C-alpha cells in the first residue's frame, strides 16, 4: 500500500512539473501573450444582488460570497450544490481549507468586521467567529481578499496596508507588510483593495497595486521576488493602481486581474513571463475589484461586479 501511495504521489508531482514546463514553453520571448483562453459559462446568474469574492476548493468546487450568503457550484455546468446564510450583513470574501472548513469575511451590525468559520455540511454551523476593528495586531480597518493554508487564515486589510494572519481559531499571529511589524513600508493600496494568492509552499503573492506589481513573500513574510510595472502594454499593469486580484494555480502559474482596463492575465511560474490575456472588454469598467480564482484544470473564474455573475475562462486543451 505504501508503495502504491508513493507512486501516486510521484505521478501527481510529475504531472505538475510537466504542466509547469508546458506553460513555461508557451511564453514568447518578446513578452506578448501566446495562449488563448476561451470564454465559457456564467455562474451564479440571478443568485446575488452583489458578489464580493470567489474561491475554488481542493475538489474544484466554486464558492461565491455575496449579500448575506456563501453558495457552492459545480465547476462544470455551474449546478448549485449548497448555500449557507452567514450571520453577517454583507459577505465580502470566502476561502476553504483542505479539511473543508469554510471561512467567510464580511461586516456585521454597525459595520463590525468579522471572520466566520462554518461547517461544510447541510447545517453550515458557525464553528468560530472573530474580528475587532482597529489598527493593532490582527485588528481590522478594511476587508478584501481572504485566503487559507495549513496554518493560517489570512485577510487582506487595505486600510491597514497589511495581510493579517490568524490561526484557525482566530488568534492573531502577525501582520504581513505592516510598517510596525517589519522592515517593509506597508502595501500600497487603493479603492479599498488588497488581494493575494498562495502557493503549495506557503508563499504569499500580493497584488501591491499602488506599486503596479506582484510581490512574493515566503511563509515567514520575507520578500522573495517581485515583478510588474506601470504601463499600457500587454504585460504592464495600467492605470493608477493594479493588479487588483491574484490567484496561483497548482502548477505555479500566477493569474492577476486589473480594473481600468478590466482583464485577467497569466504569468509563468518561474520567470513571470506573460502567457495569456483574457476577458478584456467583457467585464464592466470602473474602480472595482475583479476577484479571481483558478482550479486544478486551469479554468479561471472572475467576478463581474456589474452583472453579479462569475465568468469562466478555459485554457487551451493541450495544456489542460
How would you describe what is shown here?
The protein has 320 residues and is mainly beta. It has a single domain, classed as 6 Propeller (Neuraminidase). The protein is 8% helix and 38% strand. The chain is built from 1 helix and 24 strands. The protein has one helix at 2-25; strands at 38-43, 51-56, 62-66, 69-73, 80-85, 90-96, 102-107, 113-118, 126-130, 146-148, 153-157, 162-166, 172-176, 196-198, 204-208, 213-217, 223-227, 245-248, 254-258, 263-267, 274-278, 292-294, 300-304, 309-314. The strands form 6 sheets. Strands 1-24-23-22 form a 4-stranded antiparallel beta sheet, with no helix packed on it. A hairpin with a 5-residue loop joins strand 6 and strand 7 (102-107). It is globular and about 45 Å long. The chain starts with a helix and ends in a 6-residue tail after the last strand.
Amino acid at each position: 500500500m505504501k508503495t502504491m501511495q508513493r507512486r501516486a504521489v510521484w505521478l501527481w508531482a510529475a504531472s505538475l512539473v510537466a504542466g509547469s514546463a508546458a506553460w513555461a514553453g508557451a511564453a514568447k520571448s518578446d513578452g506578448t501573450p501566446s495562449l488563448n483562453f476561451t470564454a465559457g459559462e456564467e455562474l451564479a446568474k440571478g443568485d446575488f444582488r452583489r458578489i464580493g469574492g470567489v474561491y475554488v476548493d481542493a475538489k474544484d468546487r466554486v464558492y461565491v460570497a455575496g449579500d448575506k450568503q456563501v453558495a457552492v457550484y459545480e465547476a462544470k455546468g455551474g449546478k448549485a450544490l449548497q448555500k449557507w446564510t452567514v450571520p453577517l450583513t454583507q459577505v465580502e470574501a470566502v476561502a476553504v481549507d483542505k479539511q473543508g472548513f469554510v471561512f467567510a469575511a464580511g461586516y456585521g451590525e454597525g459595520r463590525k468586521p468579522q471572520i466566520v468559520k462554518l461547517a461544510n455540511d447541510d447545517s453550515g454551523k458557525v464553528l468560530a467567529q472573530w474580528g475587532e476593528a482597529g489598527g493593532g495586531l490582527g485588528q481590522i480597518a478594511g476587508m478584501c481578499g481572504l485566503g487559507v493554508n495549513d496554518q493560517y487564515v489570512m485577510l487582506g486589510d487595505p486600510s491597514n496596508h497589511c495581510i493579517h494572519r490568524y490561526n484557525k481559531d482566530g488568534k492573531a499571529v502577525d501582520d504581513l507588510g505592516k510598517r510596525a511589524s517589519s522592515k517593509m513600508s506597508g502595501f500600497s493600496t487603493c479603492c479599498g483593495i488588497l488581494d493575494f494568492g498562495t502557493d503549495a509552499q506557503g508563499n504569499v503573492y500580493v497584488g501591491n497595486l499602488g506599486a503596479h506589481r506582484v510581490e512574493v513573500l515566503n511563509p515567514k513574510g520575507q520578500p522573495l521576488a517581485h515583478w510588474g510595472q506601470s504601463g499600457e502594454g500587454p504585460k504592464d499593469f495600467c492605470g493608477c493602481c493594479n493588479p487588483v486580484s491574484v490567484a496561483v494555480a497548482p502548477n505555479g502559474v500566477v493569474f492577476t486581474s486589473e480594473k481600468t482596463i478590466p482583464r485577467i492575465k497569466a504569468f509563468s511560474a518561474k520567470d513571470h513571463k506573460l502567457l495569456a490575456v483574457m476577458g478584456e472588454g467583457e467585464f464592466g469598467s470602473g474602480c472595482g475589484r475583479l476577484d479571481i480564482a483558478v482550479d486544478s484544470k486551469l479554468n479561471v473564474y472572475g467576478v463581474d461586479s456589474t452583472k453579479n455573475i462569475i465568468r469562466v475562462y478555459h485554457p487551451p486543451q493541450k495544456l489542460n
